[in-house]
Amino acid sequence: MRIQVRRTGGFGGIQRRGEVDTSTRPDAHEWHALAERAVAAGHSAPSTGVPDGFHYEITVDGKTVHTADPRLTDDQRELISRVLKEGA
Fold first, then answer.
1. Taking burial as the number of CB atoms within 10 A of a residue's CB, which of 5, 56, 57, 88 is the most buried?
2. Angle (deg, nearest 10), helices 28-40 and 74-86
């Protein structure tokens, strides 16, 4: 499974990207479950957030969903954090 996250917006407007390929990871099943829950709670079109908040695009195996601060679910927040940290 290939998981990609793109974060835009924020006060500085700096874009950040990360990508994780779970195919060789020993914890792949955890990533898959988390990614499925995060995508299920996303929206097909970009979400409206708050001024200077972050907007996120989550792509899992070609399926893209959108979300924005402060409307992230716990699963989305965890997945975004992990991908941006480990897939930078």
1. 56
2. 130
Residue with the two structure tokens 């996303």? 42
| pLDDT, tens only, 7-59 | 999 888 889 999 999 999 999 999 999 999 999 999 998 877 788 899 999 99
For residue 27, give both structure tokens.
Answer: 């914890």
Helix (H) or strand (E) holding 76: helix 74-86
- Residue 23: exposure state from Cβ atoms within 10 A (0-12, 13-18, ≥19): exposed
Q: Parallel, antiparallel, or unpaired for β 54-60 and 2-9?
A: antiparallel
Q: What is the Cα gyration radius of the chain? A: 12
Q: How many CA atoms lie within 13 A of 51 on its CB side?
A: 0
Residue 20's Cβ-count burial label (10 Å; 0-12, 13-18, 19+) is buried
